[in-house]
Amino acid sequence: MSKCVCLFFVIKISYLYKSTAAEGSCKLKAKFNLRGYKEVEKKTVVIGGMFPVHQRLTDTDSNTTIAPESSDCEGFNFRTFRWAQTMLFALNEINSRNDILPDTELGYVIYDSCFTISKAVEGTLTFLTGQDEAVPNYRCGDGPPLSALVGAGGSDLSIATARILGLYYFPQMSYASSCSVLESRFQYPTFLRTIPSDEHQSVAMAKLVLHFGWTWVGTIAAEDDYGKYGIKRFKEVVEEAGVCISFSETLPKIRNPEAIERIVQTVLDSTAKIIVVFSSDVDLSPLVGELLRNNVTNRTWIASEAWVTSAAISRHPDILPVLGGTIGFAVKRADIPGLKEHLLSVTPYNDTLTEEFWGIVFNCTMNYRQVLSGMRRCTGEEMMEKLSNTFTDVSQLRITYNVYKAVYAVAHALHNLEDCKPHSGPFENNTCADITKFEPWQVQHKLTVFFIFYFVISFITIMCFPFS
Amino acid sequence: MSKCVCLFFVIKISYLYKSTAAEGSCKLKAKFNLRGYKEVEKKTVVIGGMFPVHQRLTDTDSNTTIAPESSDCEGFNFRTFRWAQTMLFALNEINSRNDILPDTELGYVIYDSCFTISKAVEGTLTFLTGQDEAVPNYRCGDGPPLSALVGAGGSDLSIATARILGLYYFPQMSYASSCSVLESRFQYPTFLRTIPSDEHQSVAMAKLVLHFGWTWVGTIAAEDDYGKYGIKRFKEVVEEAGVCISFSETLPKIRNPEAIERIVQTVLDSTAKIIVVFSSDVDLSPLVGELLRNNVTNRTWIASEAWVTSAAISRHPDILPVLGGTIGFAVKRADIPGLKEHLLSVTPYNDTLTEEFWGIVFNCTMNYRQVLSGMRRCTGEEMMEKLSNTFTDVSQLRITYNVYKAVYAVAHALHNLEDCKPHSGPFENNTCADITKFEPWQVQHKLTVFFIFYFVISFITIMCFPFS
C-alpha cells in the first residue's frame, strides 16, 4: 500500500438539480446504490473494475405507488472479493514498479456488480461519467482520463456492459467471461479477455464424452448466455457424433425451489448417468443442496470451468458421494508472489466491503447499533493470519490470475501509449497520444496490438473434482 | 396532420465541451448518428418511439488508428417504415380527440434502431436525455417530461433497451417483442407489450406438430433471444412427447453466405420433412434465397409469427414450390380507419427517411449531386395513390395494429394520470401526479394498472402461407 490509499465510497445520488451553460437545468433521473473502491486524486490515468462481490440483490418494495429505489446487495462472496483485492494488489504493484509506466500513477474506480445485470449497467453508466455521479454520455470534471474497464464478471454481465462501452469505443478487459458470442467484433467491438472462449471448452467437453464412448447424456445449463451458448455448442458436437440427449434442464437465475426439485426429479427419473453442467457455482449451488438432500449418487458429472474448482461447491458437507469423480476443464493455475501478504493485510476501516467481510469471518460487528443490540464488537485487532478460508487461500489462483493479467494488459497498453516517439506515432499524421488526455479508442488500439503480438491466453487444463 | 408537424432531424454530435455549474467541464464521449422524427416544441408530454426502419448498419472503417464514428444504416424496410408512420398517425389522432387527454398535447421523439442492438442503445441513451444531445442519466433543459418508449422492435433490441430504461423506472411498451424472457419482472421491471409472449406460441407450434403426428423434425432459429428462447420452449414440449429432433440450425445475424449454404445442405441431407423456423423475416431472407436457388421442395415449414405474414418473404418470385403450404400462428389482423389516407399523404420534404423512401419507390432522387450525375430528379408531385407496395398495403395490419394499441395504451395511462381528484390520488399521502412534471415510475404505475384491468392482448390466429 506504498503509493495508494483505498477510499471507500457509497454513491447514493439524490434527485439533484444543477444547471449547465448550454442546457438550462439538468435533473438526475435515478438514485443508484453502488459500492466499491475509488482512488483518483492526483492520479494520471484511471482504470475501472467490476467484480460480483455480492451474489444477488436484496428484495425491494413492490409497491408501485411510491418512488422506487436502487436495490442493495446481499450474499457476500469470499472468492470474488479476493478477485477485487487482486486488482488493487496489481495496481499497487504496477505503481511501485519502475519498468512499467514509471512516471504515471494509476488510479481506480471499482464497483460491486452484485452478480446482476442491472447493477453492472448502473456501474458502467456511472463509471463512464468519470466521477461519483452518473452522466453516462459525458465525461465530467477535470479528473484523470479513463482507460479501460476490467470486468464485469460472468458473461451475461460482460455482454450488458460491453454493449454500452462499445458505443464509446471504450476497452473492456474481462477475466471470467468465457461465452463464445463475445468473440463477435461486430457486436462487441472493444471486448477483450484473459480467459479462453467457451468454443474450445464446449468442444473439449464433447470430445471427452465421445472419448469415453458415452452415448446417452443429460444436460443442465444456467439460464444465461454462458450456460445457453456453452451447452448449445456441446450438444451440436455430440449430436453430430450420434450421442443422444436424455434431458436438457435450465437452472433458474432467481430463487425457485420448485424448479430445482423438478430438475432433481428429472435426474432421478432419467436413465442417463452422465450429466453435463454449464453453470456458475452461484447458480449451481441450490441444485447441489437438493441433490445432497435426495442423496443422488451413481452419476458422473461433467463440469464447466466456472464451478469445477469452486470451493463454494466443494465445501458442501458430504459432497463426495454425490459429486466425487466429477471431471471438467479448469483455467490454468498460477502463483502471484506477494498476493497472500496483501490479502492478509486488509483492514476493516474506511471500507464497508472489507468491514462486512471482517464481520462475517470474525462473527462481530463495527456497527454501534448492532453492538448495543448484543452483537460482539470487532476490535480491528482480530488476527487475519489465523484464518483459513476461500479469501486467503492462494493455492488455486485461476480466475484470480486472470484478473492480475487483465490489469497488467491494460497497464502495458498504457505504457505503449505513453512510450511513443514524437512524429512516429501510430495515429493520424504519425501523432502520439497524450497520456494525460487521450481517447478510449487509442487505448483500444494499443490493447488490440498488445493482444495480437504479446499475449498468450492460458490453456485450459483437465481437472478432477474435488481437486486436491 | 392538423395539430402536428413532423420535423426531421439527424443528430451528429461533435466532440463538444460545455461547462456545468457543479462539475467544471463536461465533454461528450461519442458521436451518435441517429435518424428519426421529433416534435417537442409547445407539447405537454413526450412519448418516445423506436422502429427498425433500416435493416442493418453500413460497414465501417476497421482502421483502429483513427477516431471511430457511429455507423450509418442501410436496407430501407417498407413494413417497419409503416409502423413508424402509424405511431405518428396515432399521436395525431389522439391530439385531435377530445375524450383522451383533451388539454394535453403529445409530442414525440422517434428513432430508427436499424435492427441493431448498438443503434437501439444509442437511441435509448439519447432519448433519456430528453433533448438532441445524449446525457443519459440526466434530464436536461426545460422541455416537456418524457412518459414512455414505444419500441424497440425485435426482442433482442427490446431486451437491451429495457435493461437501461428499467434502471430509471421508465416504462417501455413494445409492439413486436414476443420473447418469453421479457416476462421477468425482476430483470425487466418496466417492460410491457401489446403482443403475446412466445410461451404461448412455442407451445402452440409444438401442439401443432403433435396434432399431425409428426415425430421427426428439424429446427432453425435466429441467432438472437427471439429465436433461441422460442425454439428452446418448442423443443422442450415436443421432446417430452417423444418427437425427435433431426437437426438444430442457427441463422447468422450478420452476412455469412457459407453458413447459409451449410444450413441448406443440412436441410437437403436430412430425412426430416417438417422444419420449424423461429426467426424474423429479415434474418430468414438470405436462407429463403438459397432454398430457392437449390430448389428445395417437398418440405413443410412451420413458421413463427415474425415471418409467417411477411411480404418480404412471400414476394420472392417462384416462392410457392418452396414455401407453399407453410403454416404458423400470426398476430391477429385488424383495421385502422384513416391510416391508409395518412400513409398516402406522406411527402418527401424536410424528412430524410421519407425522402429515402420516395427515392426508392419512384426511382428518383432529391439530392442535387445525384441529379447532376444523371439520376432522375424527384418532383415531389409523384402520385403515391398509384403505388401498390408493402408500405401502403393496409389489408394485413398486425404488428402495425400493435403499434397503434401501444401508443393508445400510453395515452390512456397519461389520461388516467391527469384525471385525478386532488387528495384522492394513488400516490403517497393520496397525492396526484402533475401532468406537466411527473416521474416515469408514476406513468409505469398507471400503465400497469391499465394493463391489468382494461387491456386484452389479441390472441394469435392460425395462418397458412402464402396468405390470401
UniProtKB/TrEMBL annotation, chains A, B:
Q: Which residues cross the membrane?
A: 447-467
Q: Name any one GO molecular function.
A: olfactory receptor activity
What are the Receptor ligand binding region domain coordinates in residue numbering?
83-442
Q: Which InterPro entries match?
A: ANF_lig-bd_rcpt, GPCR_3, GPCR_3_Ca_sens_rcpt-rel, Peripla_BP_I
Keyword flag Protein biosynthesis:
no
Q: Which residues form the signal peptide?
A: 1-21
Q: What UniProt keywords apply to this chain's record, in alphabetical order?
A: Cell membrane, G-protein coupled receptor, Glycoprotein, Membrane, Receptor, Signal, Transducer, Transmembrane, Transmembrane helix
- The answer to whether UniProt assigns keyword Cell membrane to this entry is yes
Q: How does it sit in the membrane?
A: Multi-pass membrane protein
Know the name of this protein? Vomeronasal type-2 receptor 1-like
**UniProt source species:** Sinocyclocheilus grahami (Dianchi golden-line fish)
Its organism's taxonomic lineage begins at: Eukaryota, Metazoa, Chordata, Craniata, Vertebrata
